[in-house]
Design goal:
Length: 191
């Protein structure tokens, strides 16, 4: 597994030629899955042009990038570009709780929703302590209980979208849960 994200001093999303170079290098090194942070700035400047995605994930929209986009509507439409680049047979994974969800639920995509207030993967209850978080989600009428050493409601969203993606890629819940018990927050997060 390979994760591409922005680094301090770098553009939020590398140029498309750099992305392809990284993907080719990763593939040659034996990696078969890559996660790319598709920033709105990267989408705006066409740094992800012609990169086909198997999955696109929408977590939320906040007013963080209005200095670049001017309005929330411009910001949302810029992010929507990613959902127009999903390959046939790919999936759009969308936060059911965000009021902008309909912008990303395009009729020609296979849409999967998740959230606390509804969705295909619906969080039915959760508890947090200094030791971590436990929560239950329901999918296809089946309850799944999750424990992870991360704290915060936003981490429940992040964990759930990770579970969905890995499950859709063919990993079993058991395989996913074994890994979740060992995840850590990035250095500096919540410090």
């Amino acid at each position: 597994y390979l994760f591409f994200s922005c680094s301090p001093g770098w553009p939020t999303t590398p140029e498309v030629t750099e992305i392809y170079d990284m993907l080719i290098s990763a593939y040659d090194s034996g990696y078969r899955y890559a996660v790319i942070e598709a920033s709105s700035e990267g989408l705006l400047h066409r740094r992800l042009e012609n990169v086909p995605f198997e999955y696109a994930i929408f977590t939320n929209l906040t007013q963080d990038h209005l200095n670049i986009h001017g309005t929330m509507a411009n910001y949302a439409m810029c992010k929507q570009k990613l959902f127009n680049q999903i390959r046939p047979g790919g999936k759009a994974i969308i936060n059911y709780d965000d009021p902008n969800k309909s912008i990303f639920s395009l009729s020609y995509n296979d849409n999967i929703t998740y959230g606390f207030t509804g969705g295909d993967y619906h969080v039915s209850d959760y508890q947090m302590s200094i030791m971590g978080t436990s929560f239950t989600f329901i999918s296809d009428g089946v309850k799944q209980n999750i424990k992870a050493p991360l704290i915060g409601k936003y981490n429940i969203y992040n964990i759930l979208v990770t579970i969905i993606t890995l499950y859709e890629l063919g990993f079993t819940y058991s395989e996913i849960y074994d890994v979740l018990l060992h995840v850590n927050s990035p250095a500096g997060r919540m410090d």
